[in-house]
Design brief:
2 domains; 8 strands; Rossmann fold; hydrolase; binds magnesium ion; binds 2-phosphoglycolic acid
Length: 221
């Protein structure tokens, strides 16, 4: 039986908040504006770069300036499209992906990070060799929580399966796609675990192969 497993990227496979925070503050400094805190940056992640910069613009009180968003977003993309410097894989990710491969899973990615930095990060961390299909924020005209990118990745893998992510956006996306959701609890969610609809939850990647085996085993039984 087909075992499709699709992952979110930021806050799920990689802890990228430090690089996103750094890039946002490089932009703010270039504008002579006050920097944002790490906690602010972390809370702005989830709906892609454009929304992150909209929140930055609001945080520094520039929402009245119509040029601020496009200008800061262009600077941010320039700053962010480079090799990750402060980003790390969550512990156990590579082992878990190797074990999922042994279980015969077809794996893919559905992220709200734009294509260019997505592919730089996947290659940097050696994740690309495990992922047969990828949808980023700009792959389709719509992005998460619209279910279309997730459904496209599942289709590219051969059929529906499990979505694994860390946020409110991911839980909503899986729900709208009619797919089961596994919540990684150590990412960038803002709500309590119980408020995010999920079939499974895990706080360390060494738990995921067991969850996946149980999920598809139950379907086979
Ligand atoms: O870059 C973002 O805002 C979110 O990215 P993610 O969908 O991989 O969590
Ligand atoms: Mg995420």
């Amino acid at each position: 039986m087909l075992k499709s497993v699709v992952f979110d990227l930021d806050g799920t496979l990689i802890d990228s908040a430090p690089d996103l925070h750094r890039a946002a503050n490089v932009v703010l400094r270039s504008e002579g504006l006050p920097e944002i805190s790490f906690e602010q940056a972390r809370s702005f992640i989830g709906k892609g770069a454009s929304v992150l910069i909209a929140r930055v613009v609001e945080a520094v009180g520039l929402q009245g300036d119509p040029d601020a968003h496009p200008r800061l977003l262009a600077k941010f993309m320039h700053e962010y499209e480079r090799e990750p410097a402060l980003t790390v894989l969550y512990p156990g990710v590579i082992d878990a992906l190797a074990r999922l491969e042994l279980l015969g899973c077809a794996m893919g990615l559905c992220t709200n990070k734009p294509e260019a930095p997505t592919h730089i990060a996947l290659k940097h961390f050696g994740l690309d060799r495990h992922l047969r299909a990828v949808a980023s924020a700009d792959t389709l005209p719509v992005r998460k929580p619209d279910p279309a990118p997730l459904m496209k990745v599942m289709q590219d893998l051969g059929g529906p399966g499990l979505y694994v992510g860390d946020s409110e956006v991911d839980a909503e996306t899986a729900d709208r796609a009619g797919l089961p959701f596994a919540l990684f609890t150590e990412g960038y969610r803002k709500s309590p675990i119980r408020d995010l609809p999920h079939a499974y939850a895990f706080d360390h990647w060494d738990q995921l192969p067991g969850i996946v085996a149980q999920h598809f085993g139950a379907l086979e039984a």
